[in-house]
Amino acid sequence: MTTIVLYGGEGAFAEGGAYEWEGPEAGSTRRFILFLAQDDAVSHEELALGELKRYGFHDARIVAGKPIAVEALNTPSMQAFRRHYEGAIEEGSSIVWYP
Q1: What pLDDT digit, counting tens, does each position of 7-16 carry?
Q2: Least packed by Cβ within 10 Å: which of 11, 27, 47, 81?
Q3: How many domains is the chain built from?
């Protein structure tokens, strides 16, 4: 069964990642949450760091991943994250970055 695990952290963004997406300005350091689809609910920091590099984040520092409480996405304050959860289910990962 697929589990979405959340990894929060901060890293420097550089152009040239494997994915085409609207990332932050190149050279900037941003906080983020990575939504990563996994086969288990265990934190896999090395896997998450590899995925962050594909998004263009380098020198990232992350905290241990935690599985998302899916029912929390039904609360009004968390509904903005629903599309990232769904994106991770469909594509394998999704990322939210903060200005």
Answers
A1: 999 999 997 7
A2: 27
A3: 1
CA 85 from chain centre, in angstroms, equals: 10
Q: Is the Cβ–Cβ distance between 87 and 34 less than 8 Å?
A: no
What is the pLDDT, as a whole number, of residue 1? 86
**Domain range spanning residue 79?**
3-23+30-35+43-98
Name residue 94's beta-bridge partners: 35
What pTM was computed for the model? 0.94
User: CB neighbours of 34 closer than 8 A, spacing ≥ 6?
Assistant: 6, 7, 8, 9, 48, 51, 52, 55, 62, 93, 94, 95
